[in-house]
């Protein structure tokens, strides 16, 4: 079992207790069934042909099928049942108390992480900065020369007094070219978006592992939990969401986490580190689910409002209230992979040309 003891998880299964102060779990229960937590924070796979074999790494299996988040499965029979679902707590009525509760949850989650052999993936945004604030550890930022993320990380490190801890992994075209098939094979995905998102994480983790660090702390989860996406802010008008409210749209975003975390965890492990995601601690998740819509997106359209207000206790305001580009764009990785695709003959007039390029590289 990863993420918690098998005995504690068995208790949670019996009580259908989806959140109990872990950062996610998956593995084999004492009765030999497989289990995965409600947010899918730990991936686990079973043979798709009904064989009893299972693994945390899909490459170990001939026909791997991910266990859905929140499910318990008998790997011999293939029978699966959803045991866990995320709670739907009452909406917090006092904004100040809600922010204080979130601050306390963040503090407890960060304090629960052992600092040994730990590095931090650092983009200069509020998510990774809050994580970085808790640890005397090196901060790794990845990007091409003149990229937004490298500049932002330098500025944030300066504001936080952590300039000496910052380690810039400046990329070259050959780095991206080499890593594209490695990331695709590690994640089992060839679509452009997944590879472009995972690639900066993979390269940061690779450098941290080379420098001797076994674990990489990441800021994953904050956008989903706290209303960080434009489509959530525009609910219900945005056609990408079904919900009629901002709070409902944020809940939809949380539902995308299992698929995203599977990709990120597999990429990071393939690079040689074990990911640590304090912002996905059960205590933080529980508090986030109770936030009202105006503490996710305020009346001026500022996203992640409650998280930014709580973050002021950990980082300077210039970091807490800074907007950030998505990692694939802020690092310029998406631009470079697109260039590599076109250079290899996959022109933009082709449908999904970057995905076709990635697929062509996997068999090399």
UniProtKB/TrEMBL annotation:
Highest taxon, organism lineage: Archaea
InterPro entries noted in UniProt: Asn_synthase (IPR001962), Asn_Synthetase (IPR050795), Rossmann-like_a/b/a_fold (IPR014729)
Nucleotide-binding found in the keyword field: yes
Alphabetized UniProt keyword annotations: ATP-binding, Nucleotide-binding
BP-aspect Gene Ontology terms: asparagine biosynthetic process
GO function terms (MF aspect): asparagine synthase (glutamine-hydrolyzing) activity; ATP binding
GO cellular component, one term: cytosol
Residue stretches making up the Asparagine synthetase domain: 104-237, 250-344
Protein name as it appears in the record: Asparagine synthase-related protein
């Amino acid at each position: 079992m990863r993420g918690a003891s098998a005995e504690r998880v068995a208790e949670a299964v019996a009580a259908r207790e989806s959140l109990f102060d872990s950062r996610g779990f998956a593995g084999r229960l004492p009765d030999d069934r497989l289990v995965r937590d409600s947010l899918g924070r730990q991936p686990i796979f079973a043979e798709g042909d009904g064989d009893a074999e299972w693994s945390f790494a899909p490459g170990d299996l001939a026909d791997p099928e991910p266990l859905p988040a929140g499910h318990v499965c008998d790997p011999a029979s293939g029978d699966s049942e959803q045991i866990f679902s995320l709670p739907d707590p009452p909406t917090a009525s006092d904004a100040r108390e809600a922010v204080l509760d979130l601050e306390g949850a963040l503090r407890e989650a960060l304090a629960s992480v052992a600092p040994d052999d730990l590095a931090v993936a650092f983009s200069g945004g509020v998510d990774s900065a809050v994580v970085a604030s808790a640890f005397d550890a090196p901060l790794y930022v990845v990007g091409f020369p003149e990229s937004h993320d490298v500049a932002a990380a330098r500025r944030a490190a300066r504001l936080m007094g952590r300039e000496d801890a910052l380690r810039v992994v400046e990329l070259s075209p050959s780095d991206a070219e080499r890593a594209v098939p490695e990331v695709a094979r590690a994640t089992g995905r060839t679509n452009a978006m997944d590879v472009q998102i995972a690639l900066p994480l993979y390269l940061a983790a690779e450098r941290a592992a080379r420098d001797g660090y076994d674990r990489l702390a990441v800021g994953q989860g904050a956008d989903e939990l706290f209303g960080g996406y434009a489509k959530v802010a525009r609910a219900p008008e945005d056609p990408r969401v079904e919900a009629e409210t901002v709070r409902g749209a944020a809940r939809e975003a949380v539902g995308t986490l299992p698929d995203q975390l599977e990709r990120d965890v597999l990429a990071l492990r393939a690079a040689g580190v074990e990911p640590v995601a304090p912002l996905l601690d059960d205590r933080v998740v529980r508090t986030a689910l109770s936030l009202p819509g105006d503490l996710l997106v305020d009346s001026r359209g500022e996203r992640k409002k409650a998280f930014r207000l709580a973050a002021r206790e950990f980082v300077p305001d210039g970091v807490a209230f800074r907007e950030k580009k998505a990692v694939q764009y802020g690092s310029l990785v998406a631009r470079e992979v697109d260039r590599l695709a076109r250079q290899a003959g996959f022109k933009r007039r082709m449908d999904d040309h970057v995905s076709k390029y990635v697929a062509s590289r996997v068999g090399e």
